Amino acid sequence: MLNDGDQPPDLRRRPALTDQPSREPVLKAPLVALLLTASLPILFWLQERSPDGGLSLAFTPASLWRGDWWPGILTSMFLHANWGHVAMNAMGVFAFAPPVARLMPGTRGVVGFLTFYLATGLVSAIGYGLVHPDTFHPLVGASGAVFGLMGAALRLLGRRDGSLRPLVDRRFLVMAAVIMAVNAGAGLIGLAPGAEGARVAWEAHAFGFFAGVLLIDSWLRLFGSRRTSFDSPPDLRDPSA
Questions:
Q1: Which of 182, 192, 212, 232 has its CB 3.0 to 4.6 Å from that of 152, i.e. a possible disulfide?
Q2: What is the DSSP letter of 142?
Q3: Are 204 and 127 in contact (CB under 8 A)?
Q4: What is the pLDDT of residue 211?
Q5: Closest Cα to residue 123, out of 214, 222, 224?
């Protein structure tokens, strides 16, 4: 009710209320990370339908010394042993690719992110070849590159502003030690889901991990954004208000 001297409120100044929920993307991961995740099962589906199951594209460590290492040293990271192997690596990419990809936005950043992924995978394969120079068993899988993403993401541990933790940071060193201990244990014991009956190339994982840890600094200088903060802007008001 209104008193005689009261004026009705100006309803035009009130913001319109709506029951419609704000549209938020289901997945907020960068598109390049989602596409990379999806590429793993798609490529394995194609691999299963190739005449030799992709064996000619695998990497044989002994080939480093025979001089016929190309193109297997690159293509091996796009091959997998079975669907369980694919699922593990796809989940790894989905978990660790987004924080790394966010550091390298834009078209230039996409190129930087993908070359970072390839570079850590290459270091992983070369490192494994140097440790096992006489091995003729083929090496396949994106695990080395996934561990590269993991190593880079670990440098961001607890850093909401997108800055990297120093290599001597205690929290980083403890987590890296735990990850490498689990990796070595899984490889030496042969305990890895989806890899039953196959040798787990834990050394390749280690080379990929440390490549990611060390290379992310240089990659950000080349492809990173000046503004890398993951925080929301301080002013959260509705821009239409």
A1: 212
A2: S
A3: yes
A4: 98
A5: 214
Does residue 184 lie in a domain region? yes
Q: pLDDT tens across 99-121, in order? A: 999 999 999 999 999 999 999 99
Q: What are phi and psi of 154, to 5 degrees?
A: -65, -30
Structural domain contains residue 228: no
Q: Is the dihedral of CA 95, 86, 109, 70 positive or negative?
A: positive
3-class DSSP state of 59: strand
For the segment 65-80, what is each residue's pLDDT rounded down to a tens digit?
Answer: 888 888 999 999 999 9
Does the pLDDT value for residue 237 go beyond 50? no
Rg (CA), the chain: 24
Query: In angstroms, rounded to a whole number, what is the distance separating the alpha carbons of residues 140 and 151?
Result: 20
**Closest to 160 measured CA to CA, from 209, 230, 71:** 230
What pLDDT is attached to residue 130? 93
What's the per-residue H, E or C state across 198-210? CCCCHHHHHHHHH
pLDDT score for 199: 73
What is each CA distance from 144 to 18, 118, 205, 206, 209, in whole angstroms? 49, 10, 5, 8, 7
CB atoms within 10 A of CB 151: 27
Half-sphere exposure of 52 (CA within 13 A, CB side): 6
Give the integer Cα–Cα distance in Å for 144 and 148. 6
- CATH code, domain with 219: 1.20.1540.10
Of 166, 144, 164, 167, whose CA–CA distance to 156 is shortest? Answer: 164
- Between CA 101 and CA 10 the distance in angstroms is 48
